Structure formats: C-alpha cells, structure tokens
Give the backbone structure.
Amino acid sequence: MNILFVGDVFGNAGRKIVQEHIGHVRRAHEVDLTVINAENAAGGFGVTPQIAEHLFDLGADVLTTGNHVWDKRELIEYMNSVSADSQERARRVLRPANLLPGLPGYGVFEGATEGGVAYAVINIMGRVFMNATNDPFHAINEILRGIQAKVILVDFHAEATSEKVAMGWHLDGRVTAVLGTHTHIPTADQRVLPGGTAYQTDVGMSGPYDSVIGVEKELVLQRFLTGMAGKFEPAKGNPKMCAALVTCDPASGRASEIQRIMLGE
Ligand SMILES: [Fe+2]
C-alpha cells in the first residue's frame, strides 16, 4: 500500500504546483491514500472551504492543518457542518487533535481506502516554540488507544527538530508514519525506524522556494533589517511540491520504505 503525504501547501503558487504534479505522482506510484497539509493554502494563512474542496478534487483523501487552522474563520462553519461519524469532505479536514478542549473540528479521521483498507490520519501539534496546546505525547497515547486501523499516519506539526525526532521514537512501532510539517524546509532524514514507522522530521513546503518559508523575501528581510512589522505577502517564485511517499503492509501497518519527493515546474 502506498501513501502520499504532501507538505504544507503555501498560497496560490503552492496550489498550482500541487495541481501540476499530484495527479501523475499518484498514478505513477499507485497511491492508495493521499493526505495534504493545507494550513497555509489560502494566501499563506489558513484554508477556506473552497480551497479545501479544490484539494479534495485533486485527489486528497484527508487534509491536515496546524497553528494557522483558524486564520480563515469560514473554516469553522465548514467543520461544524458535519458530525463526528461523518465521512464527508468537511469531516476530512483536520485540526490538531491536542488543541485546548472544546474547540470546533476533529484531529483524527478514520476511513477506508478504495481497496477497503482501514486507515487513520492524526494531526497533532508540537509545543516547543509554538503556542500553548495540550501535551502531544500524552494526547497521542490516548488517541491511539481508541483506533482500530493498522495503517496510521501522523502529521506532527511542530517547530523544533528535537520534539519531532522524539515523537518519531515515541510512536515507532505504533503507527505507520510520523511526518513533520510546519517549518516549510524539507529535511533529509527520511528513514524507516526499527519498529517499522516511516519518519521524516519535515516534509517541506509545497510552495514558492524563492521566499522566506513562503513569504515574499524582501518583506521578511525588511523586518529583520528594521525590526518593524510589515504586511507579509505570499511569494511566487520557484514553486516546488514537496511530499513523502510511504510504502507499507496494509495488514500490519508496518512501513517498508519512505521516499522524499521534490518537484519543480
Ligand atoms: Fe504551521
């Protein structure tokens, strides 16, 4: 079984490059499950229901997010439009599972592939150099106790490499893949851990690489040079789609291979 996980789609440039490549990548690798982190898909800040629908049209089964999940307030209504046991698209847009209690939406989706393989996608967020959330290490223990599927993909949306590596070891042998998002910089450490969990600290952004993590570079440079906050605009240049392709045994959920993908125009 093959799982494609596309890293943080950033703005219009990110959406366009994903649109260009996702179809042929899914066909070439006979992908059974496609997950996209969409938290920066709307101009770099959040995701709208309309953009979510577009990413589903391109073949996504589940969308994950992160700290920018509430940037577009209309997403709340979209998430609230479905119940916990729904399989509709709005139910397949996840927010981090370990946010503070009582917030809209869900952090876990359980479904089945077209071939009938049960899977779960879990979105969690780190705490190091990030806004306050509940402890992701204990939260994921609790979540895993309630999941029946063997094939489990975790999007760990976090800043610090240490926290992400630690989560990889925490979940080794318990999930199919722990894939990092949020830094927008792909790391070259993809591997299958000894217990059979595919791991990569950060899959990297799907967006404009002539930028500072997606933002127009001159605007960010000005902020560093002057210390004055200005408006951030999404960049356009040098778009790339970054993704990880994980191969696993559908019966056990154990990963056998993880491959990095980076495709330009
Ligand atoms: Fe983020």
About this structure: The first strand starts at residue 2 and ends at 6. The mean pLDDT is 97. Residues 39, 66-68, 157, 182 surround fe (ii) ion (CB under 6 Å). Residues 11-28 form the longest helix (18 residues).
